[in-house]
Amino acid sequence: MKEIKKEHTNGILDLSTPIEYLKGIGPERSKLIKNVLGISTVEDFLYFFPLRYLDKSKIYRVADLKEENVEIQLKGKIYDLKEITYGRGQKRLSAKFRDETGALDLVWFQYTQWLKDQIPLNKELYIFGRVSLFGQQFSMAHPEIELEEKREKELRLRPIYPSSEKITKRGLNQKFFQGIQAHILGHVTGLVQENLPQSLIQSLKLMGRQEAFVNIHFPKDTSAFEQADIRLKFEEAFFFQLGYALKKQYNKTSAVGNPFPLVGDFFNDFYQNRLPFELTNAQKRVLKEIRNDMRLPIQMNRLLQGDVGSGKTMVALLSMLIAIDNGFQSCMMAPTEILAQQHFNSLSEALFGTGVNIRLLTGSTKAAERKIIHSELENGTLHILVGTHAVLEDKVKFKNLGLAIIDEQHRFGVEQRAKLWMKNKIPPHILIMTATPIPRTLAMSFYSDLDVSVIDELPMGRKPIITAHRREKDRNSVFRFAKDEIDKGRQVYFVYPLIEESEALDYENLMGGFERVSEAFPYPDYAVTMLHGKMKPQEKDEAMQYFASGKANIMVATTVIEVGVNVPNASVMIIESAERFGLSQLHQLRGRVGRGAEQSYCILMTSDKMSSDSRTRIKTMCETNDGFKISEVDMKLRGPGDILGTQQSGVVDFKRLDLAQDGHIIKAAKDTVEALLRADPSLQQEQHQALKNYYIKQYKGKNKWGRIS
Ligand code: ADP
Ligand code: MG
Predict the structure, then answer these.
(1) Distance of CA 177 to the CA centre of its chain
(2) Who's near 630: CB < 8 A, 6+ residues apart?
(3) Which one of 263, 391, 405, 505 has the lowest number of neighbouring Cβ atoms within 10 Å?
(4) How far apart are CA 63 and CA 101, in angstroms?
(5) Is the pLDDT of residue 604 over 90?
(6) Contact present, 315 and 305 (Cβ < 8 Å)
(7) Rounded distance between C-alpha atoms, residue 244 and residue 250, angstroms
(8) Burial 157-189, CB ≥16 within 10 A → b, else e
(9) Nearest CA owner, ligand 1 atom 15
């Protein structure tokens, strides 16, 4: 211990030096900093980035102050310092600050005699801090003070670090942090090593790594800051992409798969004689991509993106027929029981009379049926298993699973996907279908180990859904509109929010809504049915059938119908309390109509009071039907972590990179990584050793697939 200390006090820092050895810190403060800010080494400090910068060349005037809560710099003099006793003998220090244009109150709630003696009176100086407004009078608490005579010559942007009261109270103010950072950066030469090849730095015109750290803390000017920012973001994106690219490369070269060379009778018979409609060009193209993948003795890992209603299910079905033609079983997983049931129904119907054996496995499958499923799976007579997560259970064993399709709602992470691989000695081909489009930057990041197919075309003759925003006062006309549509033979959904925190209340609303709708649409002229999550599976199924068969005109439901429900004759979707739904949920719900050739409508009912986020969501829905555009807005509102779902939210913890803003940087990093691995797949070249070593050091153990050494 002693020895280390000696070395560090000599001023030799390295990145792993504990912060207590830094000048001005020591054991007490280092504990505080570690607890509150999570900083324990010199390297952590380098990555402790400013929240924002104060432009020291910019000096405000008291007379120009308008808003409170802004951090500003003023130039003038302090006078009239006094102690004021208030409350129960508490004291504060107060003074006036004046420039040529006016005066401002200064106040210190916590102070020592020493501090009091330090405050320079009647001298030209600068103060920095956040102004607040009491009545008409502006004031500043705990200002930082800089005497004119001691002012730095070079007016750089001044970093403002994230802080908390707990820390400032103990004297660790901005000046302290600036001092520490300056000290570290002053010794940084040789510490911060370049981790990207020179050729790349030159071709992309990136700032060097060390210079970037210096300029992120103490930018020479705005443009230096921007360069530093881009450099550090690029670096993050680059190594992140490298991880995924190495995984993809590993999959392609080493992940053996079952080749499906044949297109046989099951596929051909269906394609020629049973296809209920002509495939769209996009469906054909995507099917070809899948077929080409599965032909090879390499495991397919493909993401199928397509907007709601673009016809992903048919692509899935045709892919499964190819598996059967090659003597393999398939499974198709859905996030909810209703959706699994729905897939099962529509697949069974489409496959009726083809000899394909298909069964459904969910949490509520009876023991007797389970037994049959287990034995048919194991002896190979079951061709297709449709189900929920129940399919993943260890008890479920296939004879030869060749293709696994995931129709997902919540995004699966890499680890979850891997679980499916284990279902067969040679891992099955994997096709992931997204329920909602994924923002481009997320697809580019978190799915970049997958190949991506996009269905970018809706079936012919679909009319864009007309979406409108209505309020409670419009209810009668909304009901009248629904009646007109029903009279034309159409069907209508009313959807109510059911959000867990306020479940009891939501449940009441749903029941109230059901009654109100039943009154407005009385039996026997109209038939209303209801569907919600608390119903038994059999009741759900009956309600669904009642509506799907056209016997019921109206379905009152919660979001259980959100994903995948398919009743093409339904043409009106009325969403109650629409301000409470998320954007992707609204888009999914709207996707339940517009599935036939009729003009369809979506009516968003809201109260008069809405948050600004709600307003943005409603407005976006009224403006566009494009799921990709909607997903971009959604990401801006919710942030990428929420979009990816809990499974992956941890991995979006980037230090600087912002997935909602930095799409162009991510794209550049991805292209760069791809070019790099094309030229040097196992990173053997001399010029790539630094980046390889950095990658191994940073990500060792995190990526099991990182087979480079
Ligand atoms: P999603 O991509 O949202 O899963 P589905 O697969 O459920 O969409 O398809 C939506 C509806 O469009 C279904 O009723 C389906 O039968 C129909 N459909 C799919 N492809 C076509 C097509 N090429 N032409 C006409 N209708 C189609
Ligand atoms: Mg679907």
Answers:
(1) 32
(2) 437, 583, 584, 587, 620, 621, 624
(3) 505
(4) 5
(5) yes
(6) no
(7) 10
(8) bbbbbebeeebeeeebbbebbbebbebbbebbe
(9) 311
The two beta strands, 137-141 and 125-134, are: antiparallel
Indicate which ligand has the atom closest to the C-alpha of 314: 1
H-run or E-run covering 467: strand 466-471
What would the pLDDT profile of 17-67 be if each residue is shown by its tens digit? 899 888 888 888 999 999 989 999 999 999 999 998 888 788 999 998 888
Buried b (16+ CB within 10 A) or exposed e, 400-412: bbbbbbbbbbebb
Q: What's 546-602 look like in SS3? A: HHHCCCCCEEEECHHHCCCCCCCCEEEEEECCHHHCCHHHHHHHHCCCCCCCCCCEE
pLDDT at residue 707 in the model: 41
- Residue position matching structure tokens 């001023």: 11
Residue 279 pLDDT exceeds 80: yes
In degrees and rounded to multiples of 5, residue 2 shows phi and psi of -55, -45
- How far CA 139 is from CA of 76, 99, 109, 297, 403, in Å, comes to 14, 14, 13, 73, 68
Instruction: Find the ligand nearest to 407 CA.
Output: 2
Tell me how far apart the alpha carbons of residues 212 and 228 are, in angstroms, rounded to a whole number: 4
End-to-end Cα, the chain, rounded Å: 34
pLDDT digits (tens, 9 = 90+) for 189-216: 677 889 999 999 999 999 999 999 999 9
Compute the distance from residue 559 Cα to the ligand 2 centre, in Å.
15
Closest CA to 451 of 247, 221, 658: 247
Distance CA 91, CA 108 (A): 9
Q: Whose CA is nearest to atom 22 of ligand 1?
A: 459
In the chain, helix, strand, coil percent, each to 5? 45, 20, 35
Average pLDDT score over the chain? 88
Mean pLDDT of 394-410: 87
Q: What residues pair up with 144 in beta bridges, in sequence order? A: 128
CB-hemisphere CA count at 13 Å for 167? 21
Distance between Cα 649 and ligand 1 center (Å): 31
Q: For residue 439, which of 703, 671, 286, 667 has the smallest C-alpha distance?
A: 667
Which residues form the pocket of ligand 1, taking CB atoms under 6 Å from any ligand atom?
A: 277, 279-280, 283, 306, 308-314, 459, 566, 568, 595
Q: Is the dihedral of CA 654, 657, 662, 667 positive or negative?
A: negative
Q: How far is the CA of 409 from the centre of ligand 2 (A)?
A: 10
Element (H, E) at 433: strand 429-434
Distance 121 CA to ligand 1 centre (A): 78
Assess whether pLDDT exceeds 90 at residue 348.
yes
